[in-house]
Each structure stands twice: as structure tokens, then as C-alpha cells.
Amino acid sequence: PNRSNDRCLSAMALKWAFTAMWARIRHGQKFMVLNDPDREGAHEGAQGGQDTPARPAPAIAADMQRKCLALQGDFIDEKGVVSYTAMSTSELFASYAAAAVELRTVDLKDLNALPAHDKLSFFINIYNALTVHALIAVGRRVGSVLEIPKFWQSFAYNIGGELFTLDDVEHGVMRGNRPHPTTGKVAFAEGDPRLAITVPFDPRLHFALVCGAKSCPAIRVYTAANIATALEGAARTFCSSEVTVDPAHKQVHLSQIFKWYGCDFGATQREILTAICAFLETPAKEQLEGLLASGDVGVVYKSYNWALNGH
Prior knowledge:
The chain is α/β, with parallel strands linked by helices. The chain is built from 12 helices and 7 strands. It has helices at about 5-20, 55-75, 85-90, 90-100, 110, 115-135, 150-155, 165-175, 225-240, 255-260, 270-275, 285-295; strands spanning about 20-25, 30-35, 155-160, 160-165, 245, 250-255, 300. It has a 4-stranded mixed sheet. Strands 5-6-7 form a 3-stranded mixed sheet. Strand 1 and strand 2 (about 30-35) form a beta hairpin. The longest helix is centred in the middle third of the chain and has 22 residues, at about 115-135.
């Protein structure tokens, strides 16, 4: 990489992050594209000049991963609490914001040709980074992401010339274009070029994606090397705190995530609970298995804490 160009990008990144979000219109919807530079001087610094060749997708993905790890180390604690204010003015975030601009140059065919674990870790990291980037770009502290209109549909990254909002990444890419749990609509219509980006579906992604709320899973950075064990660990960690078995009342208390995305874990309530058993430790695992064997188990969904997962 060109180090002088990196410094140029870093110097401009905070400006882009807060004041130069380029609004685009697609099918009547306005988007704030967080990795598009100012129209003025967009070619100077944004890509290091027109003669700079685009880097391969694996190199860009690895660079983004390293920068996400650096941000995690300095601004996200072990419980997943994010120091948004401190991060927003840091050199590390400026460096990350500059690196995100390079996502525009990714060859989508090159990206889609990556091994399955590489693609899955890439898009989980992109989703979580875009969430944090969007909350910083709002420019003011909010008590909840619900205070930001159309949060999951309005903030986007340009990846390889295509726009990807949070909903696009989650429901279109990682959930295999399954219908949105609220609207019942798919993210990508027939003929949408983004349909070509495929990632093998793994329901454990729901324990890795962060929506900016306290009830969401903790933010972690995933790699191709650790994705399998890390997702399993994320699932067990989340379920240990968000699944409560009450044998006396023949009930299991679950996170709302299992209500919204139940179909990703099973076609029936029994199938969903059986899938959850795999992520539980003793004694909760044995207690739930016992209730399932008896055929008498009720489900109660916990309230979801939408308060911001940081400060």
C-alpha cells in the first residue's frame, strides 16, 4: 500500500464520516453512503489517483479486518460496550473510515469467489462496522437506534459499485434473501446484481450481528480462521444470558431474536427449541430437553432493551 496515500486518506476521513455523506436515490429511497468521499476532490486522495490499480478483494478484506480489530481493542470492552464519542475523534477511526472508501473498488466477482468462511466473516464484520460508522456519522448521541428514522434502510456502504444497507447485508446477503421478519419483503428483487453475492446461511449469525442496542450480542471481529469456533462461542455466550429455562412453570424465556427469526432456526416451535438446546450448557440444556420430552413447554419472550450499547 502507498503510505503517503494512506496519510492523505486518514486526514480526510473524519470530514467524510461526519459532513460528506453522499445522499443517493434508489427506487425513491434516500441513502447516506458512508464510504463515498466529497464530490469535490473525490478522485484526489479517495483512491490515490486514477492510475492506482484496484487491490484484490482478499487484500481489502484483510485490511478492513485489521482496522476493525484495532478499533475493538481500543474502544469496545469485553461486554461489547462501545465508546462512540472517543472513537469518533480518534486516528484509528479516521484510518478505518479511509479504508472503507476502498470498498468501492472491490470486484464483486472476486469477492464472491472467496472461500465461504472468508465471505461470512467479511460480511459480519462489514455489518457491525457499518452499524458503528452510522451511529458515529449521525453526529449526535442518541439514546437508541430507534430514534434514527429508517436506520437499517438508510445508511449504506458502496461495495464494488453497489449499495448495501444494513438490511441488504443481513437479509439479502447473509440470510440468503429470506423475507424481512417485519415487512415480509425480500431485500433483492429479481434481476438485482447483488443476488450474485452468496454466503452459505448459518443461523448463528444472529448471535454475531450488532444493531447498536444493549440486548444485541456483543461486538466481536471475526476471521476466516476463527469463524466456526467464534460463532459457536457467540451462540453459547448469548444463549447463556438470553435463554432462561423455568422447569417449575414449564416455560422457557427467550430473547426476541428467536421470535423475529424463529424461521431461521426451525419450522415449528419444537424445532426452534431443539436448535436452541445445542447452544445451552448444563443444567439449562438438560432442563429444556426434559420439557421437550414431556411435550409440555411454553415460551415467553423477554422485552428487548433498545438503549444504545455505548456512550
